[in-house]
């Protein structure tokens, strides 16, 4: 049983590391050939598959397959799935923004290193120090760039959200319920004020735990 | 008797311990502790015996028992203390959580011009339904009944509850009162047919009266001041362990049939889920307490909360 779990996790993390590498390759290719405005358009199909698969991680955490805190997991996955499907996918108008390219590259880099780290950790019991260091260091830059791009793209989509009435469910109706995407999008934006510092401090604490005070055998190397 | 009070990590909480007469009760110990550390009033203290080697759940000291029931004269008595955090009484908790719905709900009915600023006045007056007035009466009746029951009917098996429950419960009750009222009194509200409304409020009325009766039964099986568990008998309790919840749930089903708002249904699904968790706990506890062994009564076969399903 433990073996099945382990093989599943190694496969899952390897597939996602591969998927995000594909995103990175597509993004760089688009950047070089036709400029940053075409970047996200080129990445969308790959993003739809691999970012959406990350929802599985909430269930991994929920069913105790991995030991990671459920709440921060949900915050992380939700914000990205929201930006991908409810903003970038639903409002093509924002795709030509240059912030689409920073989004793709920041997401891809941080996800590649994260999945490689988890795959190695599961396979070897401990990831090589350089991977561990990258996992808990690159986010310092990548995380604000990624979250910043998410915010900018959402803000850019707001006028189109208001104009299109997409996803809105107006009254009157038999359920006596109304839904309007515009205030929800504003609410999500507002939640970054709380969510971003929460996630960033959470990661800084993790960094301290992972890299912090040298343990008994700091020179331990991979054989 | 010299008693050492320590925290769960083994640190001594009261320097030098507490000196109590040999025939003192646990309540006396709690009072002496409170006298030493003002912050920890008795209901905030959870006092247990230290865990034995193979023990998972610590034995909680009951305040009515004597210390000599737990400790022999020769032993060096140690009591483990856990701070339960600031406590409020159940009465305060219930009155606060029901006061919100009682006062907040009518706002949308009384001040539509201010609270639906996008609607024009003619739209508001043209879309006033008797239904909304009946719904207001039902809602206010329900919460007024609950507050009065809290103050004059209920007897509790525990005195106090953690402070954070206040925040949690008020968010739930006050929040749902606001959204349900918003949609129900909305100028764009769509009412149901008259027959459906009458059926709904009919169920509501019958369920409310039955609910009041179940609360009276629960009061009368618990003599004033007692803390133990009792088998509820009579009326619907002969069929269902938590008939008080059954009638509560049916009252809200009736309200929702009559008013038909999505948020109202979400509210009762959430409430019913929570009540089911409590009911399962109570059902198991009663079955365990009254297992028919050693001459005790055996708990009869009954539904838990929602016949004929559960």
UniProtKB/TrEMBL annotation, chain A:
Keywords: Endoplasmic reticulum, Fatty acid biosynthesis, Fatty acid metabolism, Lipid biosynthesis, Lipid metabolism, Lyase, Membrane, Transmembrane, Transmembrane helix. It comes from the Eukaryota. GO terms for molecular function: 3-hydroxyacyl-CoA dehydratase activity; very-long-chain (3R)-3-hydroxyacyl-CoA dehydratase activity. Catalyzes the third of the four reactions of the long-chain fatty acids elongation cycle. This endoplasmic reticulum-bound enzymatic process, allows the addition of two carbons to the chain of long- and very long-chain fatty acids/VLCFAs per cycle. This enzyme catalyzes the dehydration of the 3-hydroxyacyl-CoA intermediate into trans-2,3-enoyl-CoA, within each cycle of fatty acid elongation. Thereby, it participates to the production of VLCFAs of different chain lengths that are involved in multiple biological processes as precursors of membrane lipids and lipid mediators. Its main location: endoplasmic reticulum. Pfam families: PTPLA. InterPro entries: Tyr_Pase-like_PTPLA (IPR007482). GO terms for cellular component: endoplasmic reticulum membrane. It is found in: Endoplasmic reticulum membrane; Membrane. This is Very-long-chain (3R)-3-hydroxyacyl-CoA dehydratase. Its EC number is 4.2.1.134.
From TrEMBL, chain B:
Pfam families: Steroid_dh. One of its GO terms (molecular function) is very-long-chain enoyl-CoA reductase activity. It is a multi-pass membrane protein. The chain crosses the membrane at residues 161-184, 196-214, 235-255, 261-280. It is found in: Membrane. InterPro entries: 3-oxo-5_a-steroid_4-DH_C, SRD5A/TECR. Residues 167-305 form the 3-oxo-5-alpha-steroid 4-dehydrogenase C-terminal domain. Keywords: Lipid biosynthesis, Lipid metabolism, Membrane, Oxidoreductase, Transmembrane, Transmembrane helix. GO terms for cellular component: endoplasmic reticulum; membrane. One of its GO terms (biological process) is very long-chain fatty acid biosynthetic process. Coiled coil: none annotated. Belongs to the steroid 5-alpha reductase family. This is Enoyl-CoA Reductase.
């Amino acid at each position: 049983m433990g073996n099945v779990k382990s093989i599943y996790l190694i496969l899952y993390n390897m597939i996602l590391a591969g998927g995000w590498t594909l995103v990175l390759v597509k993004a760089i290719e688009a950047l070089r050939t036709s400029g940053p405005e075409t970047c996200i358009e080129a990445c969308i199909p790959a993003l739809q598959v691999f970012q959406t698969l990350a929802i599985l991680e909430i269930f991994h955490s929920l069913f105790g397959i991995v030991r990671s805190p459920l709440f921060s997991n949900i915050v992380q996955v939700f914000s990205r799935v929201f930006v991908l499907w409810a903003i970038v996918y639903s409002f093509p108008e924002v795709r030509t923004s240059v912030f689409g390219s920073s989004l793709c590259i920041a997401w891809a880099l941080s996800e590649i290193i994260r999945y490689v780290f988890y795959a190695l950790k599961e396979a070897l019991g401990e990831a090589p120090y350089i991977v561990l260091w990258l996992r808990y260091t690159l986010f310092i830059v990548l995380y604000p760039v990624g979250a910043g791009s998410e915010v900018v793209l959402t803000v850019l989509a707001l006028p189109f959200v208001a104009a299109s009435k997409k996803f809105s469910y107006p009254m009157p109706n038999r359920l006596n319920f109304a839904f309007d995407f515009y205030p929800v999008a504003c609410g999500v934006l507002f939640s970054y004020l709380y969510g971003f510092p929460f996630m960033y401090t959470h990661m800084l604490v993790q960094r301290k735990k992972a890299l912090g005070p040298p343990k008994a055998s700091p020179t331990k190397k991979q054989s | 008797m010299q008693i050492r009070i320590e925290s769960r990590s083994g640190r001594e909480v009261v320097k030098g311990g507490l000196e109590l007469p040999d025939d003192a009760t646990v309540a006396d110990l709690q009072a002496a502790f409170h006298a030493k550390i003002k912050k920890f009033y008795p209901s905030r203290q959870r006092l247990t015996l230290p865990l034995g080697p193979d023990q998972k759940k610590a034995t909680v000291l009951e305040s009515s028992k004597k210390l000599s029931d737990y400790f022999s004269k020769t032993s060096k008595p140690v009591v483990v203390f856990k701070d339960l955090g600031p406590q409020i009484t159940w009465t305060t908790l219930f009155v606060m959580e029901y006061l919100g719905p009682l006062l907040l709900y009518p706002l949308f009915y009384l001040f539509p011009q201010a609270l639906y600023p996008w609607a024009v006045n003619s739209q508001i007056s043209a879309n006033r339904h008797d239904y909304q007035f009946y719904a207001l009466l039902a809602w206010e009746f329900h919460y007024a009944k609950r507050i009065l029951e809290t103050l004059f009917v209920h007897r509790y098996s525990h005195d106090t509850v953690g402070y954070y429950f206040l925040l949690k419960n008020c968010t739930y009750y006050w929040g749902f009162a606001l959204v349900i009222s918003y949609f129900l009194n909305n100028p764009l509200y769509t009412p149901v047919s008259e027959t459906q409304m009458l059926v709904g409020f009919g169920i509501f009325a019958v369920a409310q009266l039955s609910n009041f009766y179940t609360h009276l039964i629960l009061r009368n099986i618990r003599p004033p001041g007692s803390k133990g568990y009792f088998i509820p008998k009579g009326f619907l309790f002969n069929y269902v362990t938590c008939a008080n919840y059954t009638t509560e749930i049916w009252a809200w089903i009736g309200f929702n049939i009559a008013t038909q708002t999505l948020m109202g249904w979400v509210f009762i699904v959430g409430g019913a889920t929570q009540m089911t968790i409590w009911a399962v706990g109570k059902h198991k506890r009663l079955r365990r307490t009254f297992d028919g062994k050693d001459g005790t009564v055996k708990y009869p076969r009954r539904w838990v909360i929602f016949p004929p399903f559960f």
